[in-house]
Design goal:
This protein has 14 helices and 59 strands. It is of the alpha+beta class and 891 residues long.
């Protein structure tokens, strides 16, 4: 757990007519320049502009605006083109002083400049190169003279490719520009023309931002008498450029280029049906394997001169709101507020409300594909908190302990002082553990303590954690992980996760990157299942880093589901049940089968946290079958060295070992596995019981439970021990030395410690937790039990246990404490009605609180079978089929 204070800005754009349009932009102004630029190199819609000028702006959580659609007129540009009557009066009359006056009036802190049409090229390459250099130098001086107020896009002498490559190098490396400006066409060539490939390849290598502006192509000037080309041809030319880039394969070939299109994409949204059908043509199969929309939704669109319901409604039906840069309020004639933008998203009954006295917005319904939360923009400040819960069970050891809890104590957790305060209502079951961040700056709202909730409907909610009062359905933001035309996966005729499957695993948060990462599954209109990795902005829910990434994989092997010497990941056969793990800038996913049916094997996949690109794949049963990783919905663990640990379900294990003691064909079903932190991923060590084959054949798998890594412990000789604990359906407690896990021996288990007969025969369908030299277990049909640790060994019998027994699937306990004091063990009981129990961590026979024993059903809630309570800042959060129930002290 950690806390980092962060500063945030807001982004805005200015249209040709002076309209201001805005979108939340999250940048950390307290980061150093190099770190900031490095982070932006892989950013998405909400972090597009990279400049040290942002750090020069003042303020803490106060929103600022950045105008990316602002045309400057350098003296050299005016002199060259003005004399030829190629510039309009407003362009000729531009001055820095007038621009600053307009910016101040509209609340714009920083403006990113580019040239108004027609640009520097007029048939003479030498002249165009010279003029581009002069204009860029003048823009750089403007930036230097008005520190923090201006940025710049590099102006290029296109269609001169060689000159443009030189200017890209000069502008980005010497002038430190924020990106590159392009026009949609040059003479008779549109962006995406193959002659421009060297330019796009260089921009892709650099991961550059490209701002585009339309102009009149040679073909279509002065088509209609008395109608300026800008009124019709600008929108049409933008559409030509988008289609050429997409259908010509440039967008797919150059995924690192982040392109912004002006004016809501021109006429593209109105012609989208034609483009979707055209993409089905076999001629475009290599460029568009996932269709037109898959590429169009990676682009970004500003709303300059389209701030009206008709235009916005069309665009919002085509691309997600994360790709749209829109305004909040302004002094001009067309008003497009956050509320109006949300109201056009498609009618899921979400109401945008803004209680800030300083901001006026329209309100309407938010189309978040049936996620149904009300958007609350209350501006009250956050309650004091310094706690972050950014991963499953608080840390990568998966201890399950929050030792920074200073509010809840054994003295005040009782039915007289502690109760259910209410529920945050959501759409879909909450199978993932909720996460919590303190002091998150929400654009237009201020600092909030935020509860993040993911559901099986594929929805993600961000709630003001301090706003609970009864049944609350107002969120700070809500988003859906489904793309247009998709729905959550059905349960595929299996009750394991039912009635729908969206987000099952616990996400992970990277506060430094400003992202919450999660895996969601959806079903297309054609019946295909798709798993995707998403990175959502913590402050707005917008997709980051060019995401989401569709998950595919293959691995050398001849096992179940193989083809041509490779096992292939079939999305219909798997579910990402274990929580996500982030380690050293990498997101790790581990995959369970869907209901132990069909053909499946054992997958581990790694993705860059910065780009969402897949970086490594490992299959641990490549030449056999089964071996799903589900660990009862807990999560893989990691030690300080970065080694990764998890327990694999029943599957093929090669009892013939190689000279190093590893399975000869690489099949390690039913193993407690240790995986390398470096690429390529590899199995470093493992343990599997001596009767592993019999266990797998009888479905008595080790992998029904999750892993726990213990902090460093000293044994009786003073030797530091690095231990792991795990249990499965055989109900044994296996304590492993992480430096020598024991591997496989057919006659006996050669491991650090094994405890038998102390867990109920029902076995473990959760995970143990650790606090203050004690391991806590809650097996199926068993009492909650405490096993103290002495000299790095668990006691052979529990020191205390609850009087109550927990039916299937048992309970996965959580511990809250202040350091080592005031320890409370929290446990949820499964049943037709859920029950939250609280026990004194020093003596489990002492029950402090039981939600089922309060009168008149006061603290009643519905239960999910694999949920674990999460404690943060004096509150206990429990997922239910329709909500997150919140418990805390009475006011």
């Amino acid at each position: 757990m950690n806390f980092t204070a962060r500063k945030h800005l807001r982004i805005a754009h200015e249209s040709d007519a002076g309209e201001k349009v805005s979108n939340p932009l999250r940048v950390a102004t307290d980061l150093g320049r190099r770190e900031f630029l490095a982070g932006l190199a892989v950013a998405g819609a909400n972090v597009l502009i990279s400049r040290s000028l942002l750090a020069a702006q003042t303020g803490t959580a106060t929103p600022h605006r950045i105008d990316i659609h602002n045309h400057l007129t350098p003296a050299s540009y005016s002199a060259e083109l003005g004399a030829k009557h190629l510039l309009s009066a407003p362009v000729l009359n531009w001055t820095p002083a007038k621009d600053l006056e307009d910016m101040d009036a509209a609340g714009v802190a920083t403006s990113i400049t580019s040239l108004a049409p027609p640009g520097v090229w007029n048939g003479d390459d030498a002249m165009a190169r010279s003029l581009a250099r002069k204009c860029n130098d003048e823009a750089a001086r403007l930036v230097a003279d008005h520190k923090g107020r201006f940025g710049m896009f590099v102006n290029l002498p296109l269609p001169d490719v060689e000159g443009s490559l030189r200017e890209i190098e000069y502008g980005l490396d010497t002038l430190k520009a924020d990106g590159v400006a392009m026009y949609t066409s040059y003479g008779d060539k549109w962006l995406g023309d193959r002659v421009l490939d060297p330019v796009f390849d260089e921009l892709n290598r650099r991961g550059a931002v490209v701002y585009t502006h339309p102009k009149s192509a040679n073909c279509c000037k002065n088509v209609l008498a008395n109608i300026p080309d800008s009124e019709i041809e600008y929108g049409t030319d933008t559409t030509r450029a988008i289609t050429q880039l997409v259908f010509g394969g440039t967008t797919r070939r150059c995924p690192n280029v982040r392109m912004i299109f002006s004016h809501a994409g021109g006429s593209m949204p109105f012609l989208v049906e034609r483009f979707v059908n055209l993409a089905k043509n076999s001629a475009f199969a290599s460029h568009l394997p996932q269709g037109f929309l898959a590429e169009a939704t990676k682009l970004y669109y500003d709303t300059a001169q389209t701030s009206n319901a008709a235009a916005m409604s069309a665009l919002l039906k085509v691309v997600p709101v994360s790709q749209i840069l829109f305004r909040e309020s302004n002094r001009f004639s067309f008003l497009l507020g956050v509320g109006l933008a949300l109201s056009l998203l498609g009618g899921c009954g979400d109401t945008a409300k803004n209680n800030s006295a300083s901001t006026s917005t329209n309100s309407g319904s938010n189309s978040i594909v049936g996620c149904g939360a009300n958007i609350s923009r209350g501006a009250s400040s956050a309650a004091p908190s310094s706690v972050d819960v950014d991963t499953y069970h608080y840390d990568n050891l998966r201890t399950g302990q929050n030792t920074d809890e200073t509010i809840l104590t054994p003295a005040n957790v009782n039915s007289a002082q502690f109760r259910k305060l209410g529920e945050f209502m959501v759409v879909g079951k909450v199978d993932a553990q909720p996460l919590y961040l303190s002091n998150v700056p929400i654009p237009g709202v201020g600092m909030k303590n935020v509860l993040y909730v993911a559901t099986e409907h594929g929805c993600v909610f961000a709630f003001d954690a301090d706003s609970i009062s009864g049944s609350t359905n107002q969120s700070l933001w809500t988003t859906s992980t489904q793309l247009p035309g998709e729905v959550p996966s059905d349960d595929r005729s299996c009750g394991q996760v039912t009635p729908e499957i969206g987000i099952t695993s616990t996400p992970v948060i990277d506060r430094g990157r400003g992202a919450i990462y999660l895996v969601a599954v959806s079903k297309s209109s054609s019946g295909n299942f798709i798993h995707r990795l998403h990175a959502l902005d913590l402050t707005s829910g917008a997709e980051l880093f060019g995401g989401p990434t569709t998950i595919t994989a293959s691995y050398p092997g001849t096992g179940a589901g193989s083809s041509g010497g490779n096992v292939v990941f079939d999305p219909s056969e798997y579910n990402e049940r274990p929580g996500l793990l982030e380690l050293n800038g990498t997101i790790y996913t581990t995959w369970g089968s869907h209901c132990d049916q069909g053909v499946y094997t054992s997958w581990v996949m790694a993705f860059s946290a910065g780009t969402l690109k897949q970086t490594a794949v490992l299959n641990l049963v490549p030449n056999g079958s089964d071996g799903g990783i589900w660990v009862a919905g807990t999560a893989p663990a990691a030690d300080a060295a970065g080694n990764i640990y998890f327990i694999i379900g029943n599957g093929t294990f090669d009892t013939t070992l190689n000279s190093s003691g590893f399975p000869s064909r690489g099949d390690c079903g039913n193993c407690f596995a240790k995986i390398s932190p470096t690429f390529p991923l590899a199995l470093l060590d493992y343990f599997t019981p001596s009767n592993t084959v019999a266990q797998s054949n009888q479905d008595l798998d080790f992998g029904s439970g999750g892993p726990l890594l213990l902090p460093d412990l000293a044994d009786a000789s003073g030797t530091t021990r690095h231990l792991a604990v795990g249990s499965g359906k055989d109900a044994n407690v296996y304590v492993l030395d992480r430096d020598n896990m024991g591997k496989f021996n057919a006659s006996t288990d050669r491991i650090y410690q094994e405890i038998t007969g102390q867990l109920s025969p029902g076995g473990e369908f959760g995970k143990p937790s650790y606090f203050n030299n004690t391991v806590y277990y809650g097996a199926v049909g068993d009492n909650l039990k405490a096993f103290p640790i002495t000299n790095a060994r668990l006691a052979a019998t529990p020191s205390s246990q609850s009087s109550h027994q927990f039916p299937y699937p048992g309970t996965t306990p959580t511990i809250s404490a202040s350091g080592t004091a005031n320890g409370i063990v929290w446990a949820v009981e499964n049943g037709s009605t859920g029950v939250l129990h609280a026990y004194d961590a020093t003596n489990l026979s002492k029950e402090l609180y039981n939600s089922g024993q309060t009168g008149n059903g006061r603290d009643q809630f519905a239960d999910n079978k694999f949920i674990t309570p999460m404690v943060a800042n004096g509150r206990v959060y429990v997922g239910t089929p329709t909500s997150v129930a919140v418990f805390g002290l009475l006011p």
